[in-house]
Design a protein that fits this description.
Elements lengths: L7 E2 L10 E6 H15 L4 E2 L1 E2 L1 H5 L3 H10 L4 E4 L2 H7 L8 E4 L8 H6 L3 E4 L2 H14 L3 E6 L11 H8 L8 E7 L11 H14 L7 E2 L3 H4 L9 E2 L22 E13 L4 E2 L5 E2 L4 E6 L16 E2 L9 E4 L7 E4 L13 E5 L5 H7 L4 H7 L5 E5 L10
Parallel strand pairs: 2-20, 3-11, 4-5, 5-6, 6-7, 7-8, 8-9, 9-10
Antiparallel strand pairs: 1-20, 2-12, 12-15, 12-19, 13-14, 15-18, 16-17, 17-18
The structure holds pyridoxal-5'-phosphate.
The site of pyridoxal-5'-phosphate has 11 residues, from loops.
GO molecular function: alanine racemase activity; pyridoxal phosphate binding
Cofactor: pyridoxal 5'-phosphate
Pfam family, one: Ala_racemase_C
Length: 390
């Protein structure tokens, strides 16, 4: 991400007073979408998972950027998430609600122009009841449990359903889908077991488009693509092939701004619980991002920050993370001037999301979706036509 390119600003918190700056590169996001779409080829639909506010990055900006990149199929988890993005999209777009409709919200889901993923016999019954009431044939996706034991009809459920008279009456099935539990471990035997189970189960249904793969599944190869893939993480720059080079562009940069520095002597404690004690003369910087910003407390004593002008030096985060700040040992910078307000990278070009997540004992998904509302958010879009920034 070019640091100097004029960014487009969109945030409630002005840059000059923000403690942290979250930069989201919509051009990189669009490039990632095109990479994935090209990888599956023109015969396969490349949808986008934009649940949890587009993995914390802001669905209001991410969804239109994906639309401009050519995406027409979107997955959210909840009705409210779908309703929020529906006005951003044309009638040429389909929004699937992964969790299906909570009881009593079927009519609202339909009125919002959304399509439920029907995960259980009960959800199917309720959706058919709405179809019966309205006299219309209602679009739906059907989920099958191919082995993750989370969502979808089991083999037994499917048998129960198909034993009914006209089991899909009132439904206009758009998609049959399932989800892989271990796609990020290509050699895991569960992958082939799920593939086989999915094929066996869907063969019992009338022919309809099928989807099995999310980000990592897409990289397992063409056998896994079926008619539609549903990447989320890879769009946002999370490595879909853990342990191998990341084929995606980084989308997120997280910076914390410096409040003050101090010189401390050996034996001096830093932070709550005296969690760090200097063993040499040290220069400590206090940065204005803490767990109140969703920056994980678990990263205290394990993570790093980087001064963008000295990307060769990893600066250890020392002591416990506070709610509103964290401490970094900047001794290695020597006498490099560090003015108040200077932005240091917590996630950035020289410190990938995965490294920060690993230091916190978590995954990029959780780190991204946890990033709070207190950052100044910069949306960078080098490809956006004038006026798209409203
Ligand atoms: C979240 C989700 C996706 C996207 O998964 P990624 O690993 O982020 O690509 C796709 N399908 C379903 C059912 C999901 O829940």
């Amino acid at each position: 991400m070019p640091v100097d390119a004029a960014p487009q600003t969109f945030s409630a918190i002005p840059a000059d007073c923000a403690g942290g700056i979250l930069t989201i590169d919509l051009s990189a996001l669009a490039a990632n979408y095109r990479t994935l779409r090209d990888r599956v080829g023109p015969a396969v639909t490349c949808a986008a998972a934009v649940k949890a506010d587009a993995y914390g990055l802001g669905a209001a900006r991410v969804v239109p950027a994906l639309y401009r990149a050519g995406c027409r199929t979107f997955f959210v988890a909840h009705l409210a998430e779908g309703a929020a993005i529906r006005p951003l999209l044309g009638p040429d777009c389909t929004i699937f609600v992964l969790n299906g409709a909570m009881p009593g919200t079927e009519a609202a889901l339909h009125a919002a122009g959304l399509v439920p993923v029907l995960n259980s016999l009960e959800q199917i019954t309720r959706w058919r009841a709405l179809a019966h009431q309205t006299g219309a044939s209602l679009p739906a996706a059907l989920q099958l449990d191919s082995g993750m034991s989370r969502f979808g009809l089991s083999e037994e459920d499917l048998g129960t359903l198909l034993a009914e008279n006209a089991p899909l009456a009132g439904l206009a099935p758009k998609l049959v889908m399932s989800h892989l539990a271990c796609a990020d471990e290509p050699a895991h035997p569960a992958n082939h077991a799920q593939h086989t189970a999915f094929q066996r189960l869907r063969a019992r249904l009338p022919a309809m488009p099928a989807s099995l793969a999310a980000s990592s599944g897409l990289f397992l190869g063409p056998d896994w693509h079926f008619d539609m893939v549903r990447p989320g993480a890879a769009l946002y720059g999370i490595n879909p092939t853990p342990g191998q080079p990341n084929p995606m562009h980084p989308v997120v940069r997280l910076q914390a701004r410096l409040i003050q520095t101090r010189q401390i002597g050996p034996g001096t404690a830093v932070g709550y619980g005296a969690g760090f004690i200097a063993d040499r003369p040290s220069r400590i910087a206090t940065l204005a991002v803490g767990y109140g910003d969703g920056f994980p407390r678990a990263i205290g004593g394990r993570g790093h920050a980087i001064l963008p002008t000295r990307p060769d030096i990893m600066l250890p985060i020392v002591g416990r993370i506070s709610m509103d700040c964290l401490a970094v040992d900047v001794t290695a910078l020597g006498s490099t001037p560090l003015a108040a307000g200077t932005a240091l990278d917590l996630i950035g070009p020289h410190h990938p999301l995965e490294e920060a997540a690993a230091a916190a004992g978590t995954i990029g998904y959780e780190l991204l979706t946890g990033l709070g509302a207190r950052y100044h958010r910069l949306y960078r879009d080098d490809t956006s036509p004038q006026g798209e920034n409203a």
